[in-house]
Amino acid sequence: MTFENTIEFAQRLDAQDKLNKYQDEFIFPKVNDKKVIYFTGNSLGLQPKRTKAYVDEVMEDWANLAVEGHFYAEKPWWDYHERFANPLSKVVGALPSEVTVMNTLTVNLHLLMVSFYRPTKTRYKIICEEKAFPSDQYMFQSQVHSHGYKTEDAIVEIKRRDGEHNIRTEDVLAKIEEVGDELALVLIGGVNYYTGQVFDMKTITAAGHKAGAYVGWDLAHAAGNIKMELHDWNVDFAAWCSYKYMNSGPGNASGCFVHDKHHQDADLPRFAGWWGHNKERRFKMEPTFDPVHGADGWQISNLPILSLAPYLASVEMFDEIGMDSIVEKRDLITSYLEFILQEIDKEVDSTFEIITPSSPVERASQLSVLLHGEGRSLFDFLMENGVITDWREPNVIRLAPVPLYTSFADIYEFGQILKRGILQVEK
Ligand SMILES: *Cc1c(COP(=O)(O)O)cnc(C)c1O
């Protein structure tokens, strides 16, 4: 498609967009009395209008039924999480029994590492990406320490090549082969939070297994953003937060995936709690742990229903729409954003650079822009003019046009604001 930098062209794309109507399903903050252009759905998704009813329902049930709500609410709390299995499994490409919801992301990765990071004297290394999200770095360090290893020895980072912004798949594969028999676990962010790079999860998972390691993925920026086939790719485990592309609200519950080949493995250690215990016998208060077969068997505590309610609203919305439509619009709108950035760059003779891969298979909703000249003051200008984006040190703004609520007209308009901003800041 040949793009044009005009409002008429953008409006034509909006008119053809099957997801356009979903914008009305979200609540947008306002700046200067105008609804914002929201590019930070990769950090905290907007609130869907339908969410409040899900939360209100739990509040009402609690008020009217109190403890009886566990069993007699319309959506009983004791198995509330089971409502996620079907729709959520479709979001990540899993069997319903392979997904569950519980806790929060870093907590879940720690718990999954109890099962899947089983270092021995000779096989104890973890491969991760260079400059992983800080929480993941702290997690790796504390995990290897808790097993008595040293960071420098046990954590192997895959580096970017000099002058390159992204990690090459061939370098990941080479590192896996190099670490070989010492490799216990590969755990990488499926979509890099900083650059938006999408990793080839299928190929990397197969390579990790060939080396004899477990392979897990942090899907914080992948869930609801890219299409995955976790089951078919033979991924061992994964976890994601629900408040980024999945719009569940600040700090809300995380999703987990555990491959079904591990469900019956009684030797796999795990930290247990009563909510992972045999469902029919849970309230018999027996002393011996008998895990539920499936990802639910990794649950520990009874679930925070008020945190699950907004997530359920969101998961049902994703089920209604389907990942295919999301991916289709995502690729078009991201390409349009890329085009607009390049046009504005030409018009104002600026010096910014898109560091996200240009190939559509290696990127998703996010474009990260490295500002060589304009810097922080341009970011401030955008925020004051109703473009909500985020700033990452040393000089990067991340722009995530979210297929569910960003319009093509938003992208055009963003270009105009950006242009004014660059001209003004330069003065
Ligand atoms: C957002 C994000 C997190 C956040 O972790 P929480 O435990 O939910 O606070 C972790 N890892 C990655 C890669 C992220 O992008």
TrEMBL record:
Its cofactor is pyridoxal 5'-phosphate. Pyridoxal 5'-phosphate binds at residues 105-106, 133-136, 218, 221, 243, 274, 302. InterPro entries: Aminotrans_V_dom, Kynureninase, PyrdxlP-dep_Trfase, PyrdxlP-dep_Trfase_major, PyrdxlP-dep_Trfase_small. The modification N6-(pyridoxal phosphate)lysine is found at residue 244. One of its GO terms (cellular component) is cytoplasm. One of its GO terms (biological process) is L-kynurenine catabolic process. GO terms for molecular function: kynureninase activity; pyridoxal phosphate binding. Belongs to the kynureninase family. Catalyzes the cleavage of L-kynurenine (L-Kyn) and L-3-hydroxykynurenine (L-3OHKyn) into anthranilic acid (AA) and 3-hydroxyanthranilic acid (3-OHAA), respectively. This is Kynureninase.
